[in-house]
Structure formats: structure tokens, C-alpha cells
Amino acid sequence: MNADPARPAGHDGMGTQGRAADPGDVMAPGPAFVPRPEAGRVFTARRGIRSTDATSRGRLRLDALARYLQDVAEDDVADAGLQDPQYWLLRRAAVSIRSYPRLGEQVTLSTFCTATGPRWAERTTTLATADGDVIQTVALWVAVSRADGRPAALTGSFLKEYGPSAAGRTVSARLYLPGPPPEAAASPWPVRATDFDTAGHVNNSVHWAAAEDVLAPLGWRPSWAEIEYPRPVLPGCTPALAASHDDGQAWAWLTDGPRRLASIRLDRDPPG
Question: Phi first, then psi: what are they for 94, rounded to 5°?
Fold first, then answer.
């Protein structure tokens, strides 16, 4: 990561409908963003921040961001014309936030492959507004066979299309975020029929709604967030949400009995 870490210029101070932008939407400078690759595929798309994507105060929600990321990834694969007999499941993601887009703003998403493994690949996606690059997510997606639902080797057609931008970099699929401590109280976190996707489990974007539930009473928003998905939320699961927080950091966990479904880390300040 060797791009210029400088924070982009601030917003003009007003959101849509005459609402003033919250000063907390602009975060402290964090890690440098991964630059666009010098060679290889980069796919771009534009989105507008709609009322269904924003909090009551007008900032882009984390679960809406996750939908954007999944949509642009699917659009990229479709545009590339790949017909591989596999689909992709999200294993983990890290989000670095310089500032939050607001209701009514247009964002440009640029996405590209930055590393590969035997059965997975790393996708980096940058969101830009008129102020410059504001959010970057680095996500690990696992290739899964449509025939048997098991992790599958990356195909030659995938590597031909996406390998040049990865430039030989490799990545591990290991998970490292901890589970909930014994003292973390959990409460039911019911899922809805509409939360399930075509893979037969709760879509990865829905888990970020749990993060928004934890953030709502804290009075701050993260400049750094990480999520891991050890197990899918399948039909019949009864998820519970456990959380803990101190000054400037919050954790959320989705569990089903003794089984951990997701771990989420939220930091007010960027990592040093």
C-alpha cells in the first residue's frame, strides 16, 4: 500500500434537502489506499446514494456499502464474460474509510483483483466521490463449485482475466478475529426470509446490519472495520448478537448456540 494517504478535501458542508453534513463523516487519515494496478483488469461503475442506503442522518450505511461491493463484483464478472462452473462466497473483508458518502451523492466504484490463492482471490474496491477516493475495501472471496458446493480451484479463464492485476501476489484465507468473550451478553437477532440469497444462506451484506445496530447508540462511526464469516447463516439458525465496546473500539459477534457465525471489529481511529 503505497498510495498517497492524504485525506481528500472536505465536503461542502451540506447534504441533500438542506441538511448539514455531520462533521463526523470525515475521518482521521488512515492507511494508504492500494493504488490501481498498472496492468490488468479494472472495472468501474457508478451508484447514487439513495434513501434506502443511508442512515437517518444521511450517511452511507455499512450494509448498503456491502451491497454495492457485491453488485460491482457481480457486474465485473458478468462484463468479463466468464462462464466458470463456480460461484463466490465472501470469507472476510477489511474496510478503510476516509469519509462517508452522503445521501444524494454519486460514487464511482473501481474494483480489481489484488492477489490469489489456490481456491480464492482477493478483490480490492475503491469508492470515490467528487472529493476523491473515500473508502477502500479489501475482500477475500472463495470460489465454490456449483456441482457440490465445495471450494474449487481457480480456473484458467479466471487467471487469464484477473491474474495480470494480481501480478503474482498470493494471499492466505486464514481467519484471525476472535470470538466473543464469556462475559459478552447476547440477544436474539432474528433473520427474515428476504435475508437469504441464491446460495441458500443469509447474504453477507446483512451481517453488516448487526454492526449498525451496535454503532447506533455509541455516537461515533468507524474509520476501520473488519468482518469474518466462519460459518454461513443457514435456514433453521437462530442467530444471537453479542457486543462489547470501549472508548473508540466496538466488537460484534453473530452466534448460533456455541457456533460463531461472524466476527466484526469496528475502530473509530484508523490502525497505526
Answer: -125, 135
At residue 221, the 3 state secondary structure works out as: coil
> Using an 8 Å Cβ cutoff, are 35 and 112 in contact?
no
What residues form DSSP beta bridges with 142? 89, 120
Question: For residue 167, which amino acid is it?
Answer: A
Same domain, 33 and 161: yes
User: Strand ranges (DSSP E) for the chain?
Assistant: 43-48, 86-97, 106-116, 120-129, 132-145, 186-188, 224-228, 240-246, 249-256, 259-267
Contacts of 259 (CB under 8 A, 6+ apart): 231
Output the domain CATH number for residue 232. Answer: 3.10.129.10
In a domain, 15, yes or no: no
Q: Is the pLDDT of residue 112 over 80?
A: yes
Range of the domain at 138: 21-166
**CA-closest candidate to residue 270, choices 55, 99, 34, 70:** 99
Closest CA to 243 of 175, 189, 176, 174: 189
Residue 26 reports pLDDT greater than 80: no
